[in-house]
Write a structure and sequence with these properties.
Chain lengths: 754, 754
């Protein structure tokens, strides 16, 4: 029997109390869990309960000397902490008690405390100064289950797709020469087309299964192979093919769609011009109808009015050209026209000039080029005429009379591409996180002594904090983008204006998230992350431009904000002033509830982890920003400032609103999804990921919430602590969480990830 | 005579009042400027003064209808706003008055108002709805003068260096093949060596001028040519040569230093190992002294203990190898030994194995490699023996008895390299900003109508806000790094421990700043920024690793924070616990003054622009973080937590302190410099840049200041507004500000910058 000062019944509680007090781990509500457990413990005498309760007073904590005594008691018992035990702290406590008392009865109450507190070995494994049997990754959750949840209804397609990527053609390698690289990527695109993936989103009559949602899901998976493949695939089937499918009519579908889906007809999407990056309505290329020859003449008027950065430009036979359509001397606005670029011998057609854009920061497997047209004549039938047509009598006709509305209806059909870009960005982020986390679960660095094994990188709090919230975000954005594509494809909702606003915001925040994540992963892997062989470098170069193409993020956020301001009711256009001004003309009122000071400083964990709090915060932010923005604009307008200038003055405010709106949308979409999940541990996990995501988001904009008085200083600090706590809590599951994304082993080629 | 409602004397004031009220441009203190001017205006009648004063009441502003009337008055006068006028608003006002009154007397009081208000055409040029003669860039400041100020005492050297870079050898080009690229970079290094730049920091006896400060300045300028050149140059002359100079003794200098400076002897710096990235003290390579043969045997014990990422590894004849020195069976800690790698025929020496590290995200012109040693014997004399020697009798001797202290003294001599890396990062940021801003001063985008000329990118508030503070930061960091190198080179201050802490912090925040800046510039240039020809892409790839090499930023910030904690008094080492704990044992007190609520909500512009406020805020942050950190650590230790674990628990807090400390240091250094400048417009400009830098920094951490109650919500918003205002104010000078960095035209090859 060894010496100690406590009763047999008290002894097993000692490690719990040491954990509670030595590290300020538990909040007031959590110590209440312990209080209740003690009260329910029939083995304790009244005196025991009194003693233990005395140790639970937050205003009168046990003395440091007492804590040290507890620690020595644990240390001297020579017990090991075995992280893989089902209840590691209870188990350690029981073994410690046995050492001093040779008693083997197990106190079930301890188990209950451990379950209810939610603390895990990595919260306290450093505290006792005992030997620890570490567990790199817990198997509490199952990666295959997570993957199944995320794949949802697309499981069969995605599994088949991933298996197909196992072909040697997709083996990752370093490509420095753009010509050779492009040949390989073209082969990859053809390979996928042959297996039906290119036509996936087209109707069955043209080789597809009309599965746009599955099509979008593939974009994440293609990123596991290579960014250039992803983008070239998207240009060929999504942009070029999509313009035929959505802007063309049956004659175009019959002639071109099947060939396009099979990659027999390679095409490009010629919208952007050198002089007009984001301002599509202002493109200068003209398409003039010549009634005499019944042809449309495509022409580049000035030297800088060429089409720019056009993907697939060097391989294509045809282009979908966006130009000002002029019929009988009248400009009918931007329309798309199919223009042959090359003949069967791959020689340029007369009047067409194409130049390689040259080397880029990334995506060098995509053949981007500049295109000039010098009076190139094509048949009238080449006009993609779903929304505007030239009739046999040479007159222009459109069912949509308003040219602005017509233009934005045409562009709106292409919103699916933005979802795919966001999806690809997300895939890039997942890939980088998988590499960085697998590396951090193997790599050891430093310690206080060279005698002991160095710590795993993943066990450093700074490392946990920099990577864990990004993993949570990936789960949230995955679910959100799935839902966006589902809504976009919902034929029962033909009005896509709401979706356009939503996607404009989400594409921006998700592609920025992807870039930030990849950068964080690069740095987290140190010099190893800088080597091309470890894949993060390529991802960094490739994903970078996602913030710019398919709509520059800043421009998109302005669009999103104007959409919010106009309450989605009005016509959606790039200037958007008239719609917004109409709304602002009506009465505005600040419907926001005043924030109760008690609420602004509520810091208990139930509240901070509660979806209701997060949703309220996001909703408050969006509404408040909308209201103050509207008031500012109205005030400018009233003083006579031109509306264009008024909107210039509030640009940074608009950007803030756009981001806030998108963040709220992502989180509420995710919450709805989790709500519908069957109860069980996976649902709990998803809830925890959601809480981390939300608290991390609120932290990022804490200054704004503080400025508004929505949260007080104490609450702001408490949120930061909860973010760190959740990161520690998820630490044992990080390995499984990244495996849950189902990145195939044959894609995960980075040496540091293996 | 045209119709209007105002007196001849009142009329020229109208545009000023319109500016004041239509855009909330002026703070209370600024409207007082106008009030005083009116009172001093002898031309006004009492009635005039009463009327005008009535329009200055902030609690009772003029009605919107009145404002509209004013605007029409200006608009109907058909005057032009000529931005290049010396006093554009006074000039416009006078011309407007003349239109209505045919009176040509000029009211001098107006000029005074305009001067004292500090408002510029780009604050109000959008308000009047009149024709504007735009000025892309103002010539109020002179780029050559700014360049002279920044070059300081290094002007002659830098001018000569920039001229030498005009050789065709330095013409920028795309390099995709690493072998060919490396040959060019090697030629560039040799070219510079021939002109004496390699040996610049060495003593005259070895071909130099002992000009370490000038040497550091060149790093910025080399970045204008290419990152690979910069780094290979640094490895050859700074790291390899520097280790001989600083760790070796006369015999080494005599034998190797001149040859090294002339690049006749190429060498590398073999410190990092695959298994030990940041933990240099834990390197596994051994250097065992064999008394019998009087040789040192260099050996790589395990497969992962090879030297890793060693620059110049493929071109070098020799390496400075860091290894555990074992003499008579006793490990004396890490020492550097010169080890021949190849013979004259460039064949590997027996026992040496070298592998190419392969392609990287950037810096592919640098030949990084892995090196293994298999029982490689070198003469005893090859030990760089300044701080530890093996005597003729085979015994080890060092003047520094404590092995830790010895190790950190050796490493400390290499701190200059960190300054050069920060300097190179700064050069990269400047280059990217120059490209992005020159592009934004030419590129037009959007407008409310396609009839009017589109706006310049640089005229968008979002664009100003994303780039202008980064320009201000570059000025601040330039001055700071100059001063750091001056202090580092100051032989009257032999104790370099303070500088080490300072440089650890500055290298981190400046290389992160550089990366963020380059990324912002890439996005600000849209797709054009993604093309390699426009240079930003290469900068992005090259500068990325600056956050990792020469000390990982996160690790360096931890070091800096520990340096702050131990108050520089104690021995500085990588664990640093003992020193810090010693400090914490003594009484700590929170000397911070309580923040006065009035101060926390002081929002007038004099206060917000005042250095005193900025310095107080930075000082408050550093001290508060230090105090709370110390209290947390002490509390952990008192409860018996091992010190290593206690430091783990506060890692994120340490990082915050490290950043805060570095930010304060940079700003106070800059303020001291500006203080000493001669009075004049350039000093005023530097003060304005400093204010923008400081307010932007405070904004970035606004959540922390708000949490602490150091600033209130109102002040936080006011600071944001001031940041935006300063960006607008600096808008006309951005072109000159970037030209002030003196980037030679022959280096600025980006097509979008020309």
């Amino acid at each position: 029997m060894k010496k100690h000062d406590y009763s047999l019944r008290i002894l097993p509680y000692i490690p719990f109390f040491y954990v509670i007090w030595s590290d300020d781990l538990l909040s007031a509500s959590e110590t209440n869990v312990v209080r209740k457990a003690i009260e329910n413990d029939d083995t304790l005498t009244k005196e025991d309960v009194k003693l233990l309760s005395g140790w639970l007073q937050r205003d009168n904590p046990p003395a440091d000397s007492e804590l040290k005594g507890w620690k020595h008691l644990v240390h001297n018992s020579e017990v090991k902490l075995i992280e893989s035990d089902t209840y590691p702290l209870s188990s350690l406590s029981q073994r410690m008690a046995s050492y001093y008392q040779s008693d083997d009865t197990f106190n079930e109450q301890l188990k209950q405390i451990e379950i209810n507190l939610g603390i895990q070995p990595n919260h306290y494994n450093h505290l006792f100064d005992v030997e620890v049997e570490h567990e790199t990754t817990s198997d509490h959750y199952n990666a295959k289950e997570l993957d199944l949840i995320l794949k949802g209804k697309h499981a069969a397609l995605i599994d088949r797709f991933r298996t197909d990527l196992d072909d040697p053609l997709f083996t990752w390698d370093i490509h420095r020469n753009k010509e050779a690289f492009r040949e390989i990527v073209l082969k990859q695109v053809r390979f996928l087309a042959e297996r039906g993936y290119g036509a996936l989103a087209y109707p069955e009559a043209y080789g597809g299964t009309a599965d746009m949602e599955g099509y979008a899901y593939m974009f994440e998976n293609m990123m596991y192979v290579d960014g250039s493949l992803t983008i070239k695939f998207g240009v060929q089937f999504g942009l070029f093919g999509g313009s035929i499918q959505k802007l063309g009519t049956e004659k175009h579908h019959d002639t071109y769609l099947k060939e396009t889906g099979e990659a027999n007809l390679l095409g490009c999407f010629a919208m952007t011009e050198t002089g007009h990056g984001s301002n599509v309505r202002g493109v200068k290329t003209t398409a003039t109808y010549d009634a005499e020859s019944d042809q449309i003449i495509i022409h580049t008027p000035g030297a800088n009015d060429n089409k720019e950065y056009i993907g697939n430009a060097l391989h294509s036979k045809m282009a979908s050209v966006f130009a000002q359509l002029i019929v009988d001397g009248k400009n009918q606005g931007v329309h798309a026209i199919l223009v042959p670029l090359r003949n069967e011998q791959h020689e340029l057609m007369p009047g067409v000039k194409i130049e390689d854009n040259g080397y880029k920061l990334g995506l060098n497997g995509v053949d981007n080029g500049k295109i000039w047209f010098n009076q190139v004549a094509v048949p009238r039938a080449n006009l993609l005429n779903k929304y505007g047509d030239i009739r046999d009598d040479g007159s222009y006709h459109s069912a949509i009379k308003n040219p602005n509305k017509r233009f934005f209806t045409m562009l709106g059909t292409l919103v699916g591409g933005r979802i795919c870009v966001a999806r690809a960005g997300l895939g890039g982020a997942k890939m980088a996180l998988a590499v960085a986390i697998k590396h951090a679960l193997k790599r050891r660095q430093f310690n206080d002594s060279i005698k002991i094994q160095e710590d795993l990188l993943m066990d450093y709090p700074t490392h946990q904090l920099r990577l864990t919230p990004l993993v949570a975000n990936a789960y949230v954005y995955h679910v959100t983008l799935d839902k966006m594509m589902e809504d976009y494809c919902d034929e029962s909702q033909p009005d896509k204006r709401v979706i356009e606003t939503q996607v404009a915001g989400l594409k921006s925040i998700i592609t920025w998230y992807a870039n930030d994540t990849i950068q964080e992963c690069r740095e987290a892997c140190g010099g190893k992350g800088y080597l091309i062989e470890n894949r993060i470098a390529d991802l960094k170069g490739d994903v970078d431009i996602f913030t710019t193409f398919e709509g520059d993020n800043t421009v998109l956020l302005l669009l999103a904000a104007k959409g919010v301001l106009s309450d989605f009711k009005a016509e959606f256009n790039s200037a958007g002033f008239s719609a917004v001004l109409k709304l602002l003309g009506s009465q505005l009122s600040d419907k926001l509830a005043t924030i109760n000071p008690l609420y602004a400083n509520k810091v208990d964990s139930e509240h901070l982890y509660n979806q209701k709090f997060h949703k309220h915060a996001f909703d408050y932010r969006t509404r408040r920003l909308t209201y103050t923005l509207a008031m500012r604009i109205r005030s400018y307008i009233k003083k006579g400032m031109p509306s264009y200038q008024a909107f210039m003055k509030v640009q940074t405010h608009l950007i803030a609103l756009g981001k806030a709106y998108a963040a709220e949308l992502a989180y509420t979409t995710y919450c709805d999804y989790v709500e519908a999940m069957p109860d069980g541990k996976n649902k709990t996990l998803f809830e925890k990921l959601g809480a981390l995501h939300a608290l991390y988001e609120i932290r990022k904009d804490a200054e704004w919430f503080l400025e508004q008085g929505y949260i007080g200083g104490t609450k702001s600090k408490a949120i930061r602590q909860r973010v760190e706590r959740l990161c520690t809590e998820l630490r044992p599951h990080l390995g499984v969480l990244v495996d849950g994304w189902g990145i195939p082993d044959h894609c995960l080629s980075a040496p540091i990830a293996n």
